[in-house]
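Kindly inspect the following:
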Amino acid sequence: MIKTLLGGLIGGVAMYLVGFLFWGTPLSALAFHRADAGASGTLQTAMAQALTPSGTGVYIVPDPATAQGTVLYGKGPVATVFYNSGGFPVTDTGALVGGLVLALAVGVLIALMLRFAGADFGGRARVSVLLSLIAVLWLHVGQAVFNHAPWGYILYLAFSDFLALMVAGLIAAKVMEGRNISPTEPGNEETLH
């Protein structure tokens, strides 16, 4: 169990660092389109006037819940707006710390999953790669397929998360490599070193 936890924690740190590489450096500019200062200010003012009474949330614009909204939605333009009425710093220390805690927790969960997935590095590595691919295809690429989210952003997000999850799993599998017994068979309890 010690190797499993250690592998998960190290994998979680690696996952966090991969995420930082893709989203905390200028590389993240590949994922976003930018509006000029005038358009950005106009959009911010419009959001503050139109969305602030409803508050922080996710908005579909125009709202297809009415007949008129459905017609407008079909004509376009449309947007899904992740709206925060209060704002926050561009580099939010609270989000960075919370993200590290989340990455460590996910790394440990990946290692626990791999503990039961196979008895050797090769088996655990295959499971890690396949589950990473499954997760990003359904959770991210599905947004482009079902909700017409922009493909450029979605593919960047999917690739960054695939690498992060895969690296965490491969590191956990490598740290656990010496653990070649089945945890589900009676009498095969792991020896602590």
Summary: The radius of gyration is 21 Å. Confidence is low (pLDDT under 50) at residues 185-193. Helices lie at 2-23, 37-51, 67-75, 93-117, 121-147, 151-175.
